[in-house]
């Protein structure tokens, strides 16, 4: 598969190292924000380092605006120094011996500007980001949130051709993160070039990005619009992040929507109803079935005849209080699917739910969404 | 306790025997002033040369991943443990008028190093530079490579990054290394007397003058020793402050 050249970023990356292989094809349009989501050790930071020019690919090619930066075949490699890529490191890496103003002026100075003009330009950038008050401080005197903003200012001040952010908000406390997320979204929207945000926080990906790419074990497992990824997760990892129950299975009967689950059990499902109609798929097709925790009902005894077509049993294995509801973990009986179920605190009290308790579960087929497994 | 006494009593002995009243007069004597001047000049030159070539060497030792680098590191630090007299002999055999390299220096450029002031500087540099290299290498090794990467992504080349980021950050260690190097050069005796000889006004530095004066004029020897002691205490105080200072800042 070859990537279509664009004026943005177009990269086919293969990096082979002992015990680790990263293989990814990434394109980002100018002005587009791509979130790279994945667990620790998936290769997210390595991907950024390659794009920034701190690492070379083993195979493949990286180009921006049809300019080739890295090509394993021809051996062409443009070093980080000449790429003009704004990279905001996870630990910010502000220069501790320079003031905030001089940190932001650093790129201009590196390009040979005199101190005066470089500082004036940096002051403008700080003003634009409402950081003028911090200009005279040393990085050691900044809070985490301030350091993050300054790191972004320093990257933007060089007028980068591409913006890369590595876990930009991971080191901050919850409150500051909330504040900065909105701020960051605005900056990313204003930035004209392609930008990539690496994160392991699904909310950050959903809020900041136009498109999400999920990386697991050095491979892309899913790529799509945030809503799409949130609704139809392709792997257990993504489903867990999005707070959904996910079951791989095989379509047994398209007419009734019956899916035989790989780990035992049966669920009746409907198609996702958008672009693909899985129920027209042939029997034997590998499917993924998602079920939202809030769409499952719990019963102490087998529910009487009713509309839910999915009724099964399990054992309560844990009860956890979330902010406004209670999440009940249910282990499936042999041959039955396990599930996370959200109920109200009142329901927990009424049902007297506790670990080890036998329980019945039910879900309407219309709440159970099935779609072909993209990577069976 | 015994060790403390052993280390301190000789210093007290020196102070007790010092001809305090005649001190200004002794230090004003031309021969002593000449030795003092020569010592300061040569030690400072040796430190300057060490900075000029030693810092790049320290950078290579700290950053290179070449296979032979640990062997090179060991060889470079050899003068730290080598008896200075042996260093002097080695220098004489290499840079002497008939030495390995010295014969060409003499034949092609008419440069003769042994028994000259330049020879003193060479001997002191040989002995003292490793102190600077080891100190600076340690600092470079533990310095934050991430900041250099950050500088690279901001368009700063390796040399500019070294000047604008690395060097300011290892500044305290650089100063400490320089002071150590300078103090070692100032006190250099063995290599200097072997390679450069003991000519007043030309190669006779303070330690050499002390040694010579010990046989002729004990008071002069004590006076010179006191000056060297004072310098040592000053160096110690300076390094102390520096080390404590950096410790507090990091």
Q: Taking Cα atoms only, what radius of gyration of chain A do you get, to the nearest Å?
A: 25 Å
Specify the overall morphology of chain A: elongated
CATH superfamily of chain B: MetI-like
- Number of helical segments of chain B? 14
Return the CATH architecture of the largest domain in chain A: 3-Layer(aba) Sandwich
Kindly provide the name of the CATH class of chain B: Mainly Alpha
Order of strands across the widest beta sheet of chain A?
Answer: 7-8-9-3-10-11
Question: Whole-Å distance between the termini of chain B?
Answer: 34 Å
Average residue-wise pLDDT of chain B: 82
Catalogue the unreliable spans of chain B: 245-250
Percent range for β-strand residues of chain B: under 5%
Number of E-type strands of chain A: 22
Question: Helicity range of the residues of chain A?
Answer: 10-25%
Question: CATH topology of the largest domain in chain A, which one?
Answer: Rossmann fold
Describe the fold and architecture.
- The complex is a heterodimer of chains A (376) and B (250).
- In chain A, 24% of the residues lie in helices and 33% in strands.
- Chain A has 376 residues and is an alpha+beta fold.
- Chain A has two domains: 9-94 and 142-231, P-loop containing nucleotide triphosphate hydrolases (Rossmann fold); 248-372, OB fold (Dihydrolipoamide Acetyltransferase, E2P) (Beta Barrel).
- Chain A is elongated and about 80 Å long.
- The two termini of chain A are 20 Å apart.
- Residues 1-5 of chain A have low confidence and may be disordered.
- By secondary structure, chain B is mostly helical.
- In chain B, 36% of the residues are buried.
- Residues 245-250 of chain B have low confidence and may be disordered.
- The chains are: A alpha+beta (376), B mainly alpha (250).
